[in-house]
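Entry 14. Two folds queued back to back today. First construct below, sequence then structure tokens.
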Amino acid sequence: MGLAFLKKAAPWIATVVGVAVPAAAPFLGVASKLLTSGLGKTVAPTADAITSALSEAMANPDQLAKLKQIDDDFAVQMKQLGIESVEDFEKIAADDRASARNREIQVRDWTPRVLAYAVISAFIFVCVYVLSGHAKVETVLAGTLIGYISAKAELVLTYYFGSSADGERKTELLAQAPPVQK
């Protein structure tokens, strides 16, 4: 289930899950505790575990009402912490990206750029080397290796070009926009 769909039942919790910044980690802990106590099953404080719990609760009519109450309780706790609206979480993520970009402008450090080239080059090299048959590795090891380095390459690309979360938000806004009159 996509986050846009999950936001219909639990907008506060789904937004925290969608904000992929370190500053959101404590909020994932709060959400997991509320979901664990409210749904009666252990929910780890990770985005994947919370998303899975939300999806399962939305599929069960008995738990859907509980989920709405849990989200309301989460909203109350967030307001006590000074976060007045769901948009404040998105502002946290935007501020986090802006501070990283400002750091790059101010410091002009070559380290991130060199590491980025190294990771992308390693990704391409390992994929070509393993898939062309030059490396004699087991299928599981090859898949694990390529999966790991692929995830690191994705982090580099996200750092330099943004994440798909921005694209998801644009898609959501376009879906809500009125039709263009000709």
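Second construct, same run, same settings:
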Amino acid sequence: MTHMLMSLANGKVAVCLEGGYNLRAIAKSALAVTQTLMGEPPQRLDENLKVSATAVKDVAMVKRQQSKYWKSLFPRETIDTLNPEFMPERLHDVLREWQSKVLFDQFQMLPLPIHRTGLTNPHSKSFDYQVIAT
């Protein structure tokens, strides 16, 4: 994750070490982050690593609770009942909008509207910035 963040932020990353309960996990994590910050490639994940059902359930529960405060998190089962005004933005939509701005600044390219009918969510931004032209 540190490697991915560094590529997104052009290498400008600040790291803060928080407390924790598993000293072995914290030590391994701190070492991996430090090695990545020093330019070493990240280690590959163990292909035989299995995620437990309990972990998946716990993450879903945390996500559900945090979705009350972070609009980018939302429980999938309640997506249709959310108020469209508070619909979270998807990362690919945010990136596409940023790319469009960069292309406008460099080449004066503008997004063209796409006529769309029959969408399940008319408030979706996923069709915005799909077609860009000079």
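Quick look at the second one. The radius of gyration is 20 Å. Residues 50-85 form one domain.
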